[in-house]
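About this split. The held-out portion is used to measure sequence recovery: a designer receives only the structure tokens and must propose an amino acid at every position. Recovery is the fraction of positions where the proposal matches the reference. Here is one held-out target exactly as it appears in the evaluation file.
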């Protein structure tokens, strides 16, 4: 059964998605030439019909094409063998153009629709190049099943990377249980030094599930010094889940495992997400939950990079909700979490705690290093406690956290621990280094207790050893925020904050932006607040 929330959200989008009974049949024709399955000699077997697309499940490493009679065809592959598949035509699960999903369409499967390619035991482990072609109206209704998407589970091989690229899903409608994504349900990757890459792909439609639900990928697990890259993807999408729900990916987890190599690495680079994302806990416009954990090893490193991403979404949930990331945690020695050059222009609405225009919860512990830089948020953020224009809660314990060269133009509403930039800052434990510098906020801030123009509340926690916090060149606008106090930072008028830094500007205080790099910041004129270049 689909949840009331799912039905409500889908009904709101009836202009874009016709949700009657579902699609999926295709002409049972074949274009694969048995005498040459790889006409262009690039190692990828050409796929031109939905029936051929279905056949790739019978050779998950892409070394040959298995026809409907069970014959293995590899004529034309390079001497080293074929390594995957490529689309050479658009594919349509609505061949009659009716706009309806029904038993007249390809692979209806008694209403369950497409069967995902690859499973937990037998993952898809080949290249797949969409070549910019569109798969139209992909339909899956498997709410009792985990690992749901065009591909169910993807992982590399010990001796071969996997790359899914340049693929378009248009008006997809996908229902699953856990591990649900438009293109991939789960990337579960643990081969040392090997890569799984999803790049330059686009999804438009509705994706719905329970846990680990994402617009393109439901779940990413990288360990044992494996590498996962989600680069240059876009979506205009509605994503509905419970816990760990994101516009790009629901959950991203990194750990070391055991390896002769030196690092586990995940990068989310240059992705753009538009639409609606709704869930319960750990809900984000880009990522629901991002966890980097070393597991106590000092011999290997774990590193996540979230860079140059953009979201323009409406995000709703209960707790740990953000316009870009719901919850981001770096934990363990030799663990790095880098969030940079990203922006969100979003409506972020939660009923409980840890709510941010960009990040709901940002946490570092166990000697991890977390850096958040060149970030911006615009729009609206509301919740109960720990609500911030940029970050809801920033907590560091036995670790290093830096937040700098960032700003929020977000109107903020909450009850307790409400701030224009950060709702709540805490230094827990000992040996903590927390820096906040070259930041500002200008949004309207409203709350009842522990309300600040820049930071709502600050706690230095417990511990017996060294703690260092540095808050420098960080400001809020006392005019636009309506707030004259803050747990930390400095308040200035709108006129002061719009001053240019050059001494020749009459009436401006050049010391406000002293040390702010003009290669990073665009100061505009005396009528402008500084923005990131």
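Reference sequence for scoring:
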């Amino acid at each position: 059964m689909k949840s009331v929330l799912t039905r409500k959200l889908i009904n709101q989008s009836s202009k874009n998605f016709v949700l009657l009974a579902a699609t999926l049949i295709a002409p049972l024709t074949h274009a694969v030439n048995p005498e040459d399955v790889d006409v262009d000699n690039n190692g990828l077997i050409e796929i031109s019909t939905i029936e051929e697309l279905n056949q790739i499940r019978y050779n998950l490493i892409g070394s040959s094409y298995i026809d409907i009679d069970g014959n293995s065809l590899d004529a034309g592959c390079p001497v080293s063998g074929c390594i995957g598949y490529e689309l050479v035509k658009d594919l349509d699960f609505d061949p009659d153009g009716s706009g309806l999903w029904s038993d007249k369409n390809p692979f209806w499967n008694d209403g369950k629709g497409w069967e995902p390619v690859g499973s937990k035991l037998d993952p898809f482990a080949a290249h797949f190049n969409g070549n910019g072609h569109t798969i139209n109206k992909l339909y899956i209704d498997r709410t009792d099943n985990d690992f749901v998407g065009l591909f169910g589970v993807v992982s590399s091989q010990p001796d071969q990377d996997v790359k899914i690229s340049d693929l378009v899903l248009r008006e997809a409608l996908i229902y699953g249980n856990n591990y649900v994504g438009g293109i991939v349900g789960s990337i579960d990757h643990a081969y040392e030094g090997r890569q799984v890459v999803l790049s330059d792909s686009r999804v438009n439609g509705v994706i719905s599930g329970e846990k680990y639900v994402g617009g393109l990928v439901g779940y990413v697990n990288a360990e044992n010094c494996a590498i996962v890259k989600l680069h240059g993807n876009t979506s205009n999408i509605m994503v509905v889940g419970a816990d760990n729900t994101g516009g790009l990916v629901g959950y991203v987890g990194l750990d070391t495992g055991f390896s002769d190599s030196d690092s586990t690495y995940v990068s989310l680079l240059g992705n753009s997400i538009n639409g609606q994302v709704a869930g319960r806990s750990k809900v984000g416009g880009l990522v629901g939950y991002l966890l980097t954990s070393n597991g106590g090893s000092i011999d290997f490193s774990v590193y996540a990079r979230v860079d140059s991403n953009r979201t323009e979404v409406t995000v709703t949930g209960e707790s740990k909700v953000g316009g870009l990331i719901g919850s981001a945690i770096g934990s363990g020695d030799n663990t790095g979490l880098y969030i940079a050059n990203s922006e969100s222009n979003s409506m972020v609405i939660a009923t409980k705690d840890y709510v941010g225009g960009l990040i709901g919860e940002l946490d570092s512990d166990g000697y991890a290093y977390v850096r958040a830089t060149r970030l911006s948020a615009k729009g609206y953020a509301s919740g109960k406690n720990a609500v911030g224009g940029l970050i809801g809660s920033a907590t560091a314990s036995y670790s290093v956290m830096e937040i700098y060269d960032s700003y929020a133009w977000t109107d903020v509403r909450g009850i307790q621990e409400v701030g224009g930039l950060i709702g709540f800052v805490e230094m827990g434990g000992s040996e903590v280094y927390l820096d906040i510098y070259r930041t500002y906020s200008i949004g309207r801030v409203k709350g009842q207790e522990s309300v600040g123009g820049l930071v709502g509340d600050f706690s230095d926690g417990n511990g017996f050893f060294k703690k260092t916090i540095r808050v420098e060149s960080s400001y809020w606008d006392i005019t636009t925020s309506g707030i004259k106090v803050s747990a930390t930072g400095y308040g200035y008028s709108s006129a002061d904050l719009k001053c240019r830094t050059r001494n020749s500007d009459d009436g401006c205080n050049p010391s406000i932006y002293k040390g702010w790099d003009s290669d990073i910041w665009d100061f505009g004129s005396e009528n402008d607040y500084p923005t990131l270049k």
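Annotator remark: The helical segments are 4-12, 50-55, 478-481, 494-497.
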